[in-house]
From TrEMBL:
Domain of life: Eukaryota
Annotated family: Belongs to the peptidase M14 family.
Keyword annotations of the record: Carboxypeptidase, Disulfide bond, Hydrolase, Metal-binding, Metalloprotease, Protease, Signal, Zinc
Gene Ontology biological-process entries: proteolysis
Cofactor: Zn(2+)
Protein name, as recorded: Peptidase M14 domain-containing protein
UniProt GO cellular component terms: extracellular space
Keyword Endoplasmic reticulum: no
Signal sequence bounds: none
Entry's Gene Ontology molecular function annotations: metallocarboxypeptidase activity; zinc ion binding
UniProt source species: Pseudonaja textilis (Eastern brown snake)
Length: 419
């Protein structure tokens, strides 16, 4: 996000063109797209946009319900509607600036090489490469890692979990809940690589793996992730389409059975935060929840990776009430944020989800906490909006390196509490 005039609500707007469908690295071309920054009284403008049938897709926050004064807001609209929007802004005396002249170019720039290149920990990998990697990593490190299938997606793709072999207490980590957040699954892959390659060499990692198991789901929302590579780079939800309308997908992180459909989420299948027809209505949600329920005695910590906005969050999201161990979680998050900053100086915020960003219900971290796993954290990875969901591949390594410091710190703390 860019620095804008601090008048009222601050908004960054992405204008997308969907008129060209030439196939290149991504089927849906967005030529002549623009990334704009605006300042205005948001709700009056969105009401006007709605009247004029201007479709708004929110990036941050997840929906208009969370927008308050002084919040930075990112969303995109089609470039076909850009003239209408620009005219409205000028008529209302609203200042704005163009951030990116062509969003499609930035989509292409996110990948350093051709997407047909081989697998790499420093590149964004398509699902088939990640699936092959899970099999390969388990086979070549069979004494340390095994792969199991915990369920299937709506489109019948297997949901794989990598686990560190052995008995004892464990940390559950998942990535790729929201399809367009590519840096998230990149981190899960990086973590597995680092754990294996430094075991027996790095004292902290060796101590952790000798005394703590890990359950890692590299990508929860596989169908959506595939769709984000092949059809719509900014797809968020899964690909469930059992509804009696033309809208597809459920927000998996609004589908857990905790204060379901009480805050933030929508019952409208066309909305990005659609919570589904019922708690755990989605096979991806059910696969994660079922595995955690069946391993509750051993799971002592939960880490879920998202992007973007650089935050470490903990329960609750559906209420402003504090957990019984709030002080402990807050101090642990504070220490983790300090560890992140120690490497490249990146500043992360921390706190409860409700107070740090906005109220949200049906989220995995709150559900896990209410199952009795009291160390439950959501990571929002880089960046703060300059690239948003288009974080360049050149930032995969530094992002993963700094988050590794936080994950090891949190894991060590949990380990010391449970030994």
């Amino acid at each position: 996000m860019v620095a804008l005039l601090n008048l009222c609500t601050k908004l960054n707007l992405v204008l997308l063109s969907e008129t060209e469908q030439k196939r290149n690295k991504f089927p849906k071309k967005l030529n002549n797209s623009k990334f704009w920054g605006y300042n205005f009284h948001f709700h009056s403008i969105t009401n006007l946009f709605a009247f004029l049938s201007v479709q708004v897709d929110f990036w941050y926050p997840d929906s208009a319900l969370h927008i308050v004064k002084q919040m930075e807001v990112d969303f995109h609209i089609s470039a076909a509607q850009s003239n209408t929007v620009e005219r409205l802004l000028k008529q209302n005396g609203i200042s704005y600036q163009i951030i990116f002249d062509n969003l499609q170019e930035d989509i292409e720039k996110q990948l350093d090489g051709d997407k047909n290149d081989g697998y790499s920990y420093e590149k964004y990998n398509e699902w088939d490469k990640i699936s092959d990697w899970t099999a390969r990593i388990a086979k070549s490190n069979s004494t340390l890692v095994s792969r199991i299938q915990i369920g299937k997606t709506f489109e019948n793709r297997p949901i794989f979990l990598l686990q560190k072999s052995g008995e004892g207490n464990a940390i559950f980590m998942d990535c790729g809940v929201h399809a367009r957040e590519w840096i998230s699954p990149a981190f899960c892959q990086w973590f597995v690589k680092e754990a294996i390659s430094t075991y027996g060499k790095d004292r902290d990692m060796t101590h952790i793996l000798d005394n703590m198991n890990f359950y890692i789901v590299p990508i929860v929302n596989i169908d959506g992730y595939v769709w984000s590579w092949t059809q719509n780079r900014f797809w968020r939800k899964n690909r469930s389409n059992t509804f009696q309308n033309n809208c597809t997908g459920v927000d998996i992180n609004r589908n857990f059975d905790v204060a379901w459909n009480t805050a933030d989420s929508s019952k409208n299948p066309c909305e990005e935060t659609y919570c589904g027809s019922a708690p755990e209505s989605e096979p991806e949600t059910k696969a994660v929840a079922s595995f955690i329920r069946s391993h509750l005695p051993s799971i002592k910590g939960y880490l879920t990776m998202h992007s973007y906005s650089q935050m470490i969050l903990f329960p609750f999201g559906y209420t402003y009430e504090k957990t019984a161990n709030y002080n402990e979680l807050n101090e642990l998050a504070k220490r983790a944020v300090k560890a992140i900053a120690s490497l490249y100086g990146k500043v992360y915020k921390y706190g409860t989800s409700a107070s740090t960003i906005y109220l949200s219900s049906g989220c995995s971290d709150d559900w896990v906490f209410n199952q009795g796993i009291k160390y439950s954290f959501t990571f929002e990875l880089r960046d703060k909006g300059k690239y948003g969901f288009l974080l360049p591949e050149s930032q995969i390594k530094p992002t993963c390196q700094e988050i590794m410091l936080a994950v090891k710190l949190i894991t060590n703390y949990i380990l010391n509490k449970t030994l």
